[in-house]
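Researcher: I'd like a structural prediction for the single chain below. Treat it as a standalone chain; there are no partners to consider.
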Amino acid sequence: MKKILLVEDDPNLGMLLQDYLQLKGKFDVVLARDGDEGLKAFTRDHFDICILDVMMPKKDGFTLGKDIRKINDSIPIIFATAKTMIEDKSEAYNLGGDDYITKPFRIEELLLRINALLKRVTDSDKKESAAQQTNFSIGKYNFDYTAQMIKNADKQQKVSTKEAELLRLLCMRKNEVLTREEALISIWHDDNYFNGRSMDVFLSKLRKYLKDDPKVEIINVHGKGYKLLVN
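Model: Treating it as a single chain, here is the predicted structure.
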């Protein structure tokens, strides 16, 4: 369950948002009544996202946002305020805010924004994790990118550097489309015709290396690129 820090000085609105997000969004929501209380809550617990009212006593939302950014520079922050001035929006984003919602707003809209931000963070984490990964399971094969080796039971197949880079990109997009342009730019740094023909040769070799497992297939996706299918 994702945890939200909600800092709102209006007790009625705060409780309404807390109840709705816990019921409809299935979030664990901690409600703080002012900026000081919000900062204390943030420092003693782990949160996945913050929703900060801007106009608050003791410590306003922008100041609280600055304090939170000193502690955690990546947690998503949504600022909520009754103001609509472009200066306030600019300040929200300059402080590292990820989104800005103007009161009065529909609670359903806030929930959509929360889910969108959390999905963005999750997708980013997955990509970062995949980018660091060097060992991949491909059906009954194990691919070691660093060693440039495809292993299957007691058999091993050494692959070239370009083959390893191409197979790694396919593994990172397993069961998804890897565009031809992305592969060419990532590996050859140029998507010209001759590099494209070279990549086609490497793809043919990779298909041969993986042919003993009928559940593994590298297919062409017409007009888009390639897909490593693993059933």
